[in-house]
Amino acid sequence: MALIRNLASLAALTLAALGTTLPAAAQEKVLNLYSARHYQTDEALYTNFTKATGIRINRVEADDAGILARLKAEGSASPADLILLVDAARLWRGEQDGLFQPVKSAVLEQRIPAQWRGGVGPQGTQWWGISTRARVLVIDKTRFKPSDVDRYEKLAEPAFKGQICVRSGSHPYNLSLFGSVLEADGPAATEAWLKAVAGNLARDPKGGDTDQIRAVAAGECGVALTNTYYYARLLKSNRPEDKAVVERTQVVFPNQADRGTHVNISGAAVARNAKNRDAAIAFLEYLASDDAQRMLADGNNEFPIVATVRTENPALIAMGRFKSEAVPIAKVGANTAVVQQMLDRVGFK
Ligand code: FE
User: Fold this and answer.
1) Which domains does the chain have, with CATH numbers?
2) How confident is the model at residue 9 (pLDDT cuts 50, 70, 90)?
3) Cα of 130 to ligand 1 centre, how many Å?
4) How much distance in Å is there from the Cα of 86 to the middle of ligand 1?
5) How many whole angstroms from 97 Cα to the centroid of ligand 1?
6) pLDDT tens-digit readout, 79-119
């Protein structure tokens, strides 16, 4: 017992001695980050930010829907400071649900083009793109040539009957693409197009984008929709099976002769009830820095959102320069609710 008492008093003494350092520890800056970015390479971003600022990052990771649901459930008690999502449809949804707060930042306004921001009002901007990705087509070179499908609209043609592989129509990546088509072609043409595309599918939607690319290479379908970074990963891979996929397929950037290829964003927003607001804005501004932009491009094969940043990523260079659509991403996001109703009507799962 005496020993235990001694240990206890020793512990008390130690705590008392530590007392002088406790205020500093209590002041340790933290950032509570909710991230739907599912990319290992982001680790380096967090480490570098902490090294540069001393701000420790606590992370909660889930998919976009999971993060939005969690924020809603937590309400004003939410510890979240900054939210990273991977699609305009979800960012728009978060804004609609009142989960974000506006930010005014000269750095962000200067670095992030207006096209890639949402929820812009007199109080500031509610969400900011941090990187871009194009939604492209991948064709089986033995069945199609790029000119066969040089517009998204061509996917509705009879030539593609039983040829299209795509993940769920309701996946945010597709909702945003279809929202962009809606902006360009109007409601009647878009719904007719969705109905025809649903009728041209090679199989019921399943899996992610990489699964669709692999299905093209395996001969299960002739054309697939994918985000560019998934194809870039295959381009960089040294595995023989991935090299075979690349060998058999080709990326097509649609609508180069008219409005440009659909481009989506990964983006960030400061949480409505952020307790570490300054840290959240500091991280947001860090994401727009040259260093972080290059890490997003080189590490995860995304395109920098800051126009002056050039990437050396060989996979991105190999895919080539392309014309991106000019529609504000906030409009695309806002269209996705209508698009979902269309998908339900035409039976595009
Ligand atoms: Fe993804």
Assistant:
1) 2-132+265-312 (3.40.190.10), 133-261+321-346 (3.40.190.10)
2) very low
3) 14
4) 7
5) 23
6) 999 999 999 999 999 999 999 999 999 999 999 999 999 99
Cα 134 to averaged position of ligand 1 atoms, centre (Å)? 11
pLDDT at residue 277 is higher than 80: yes
Q: Read off the pLDDT of each residue in 315-344 and give the average, rounded to a whole number.
A: 97
Residue with tokens 């290059």: 294
For ligand 1, the distance from its centroid to the CA atom of residue 87, given in whole angstroms, is 9
State the pLDDT confidence band at 28, using cuts at 50, 70 and 90: confident
For residue 306, the CA-to-ligand 1 centroid distance in Å is: 20
pLDDT of residue 26: 55
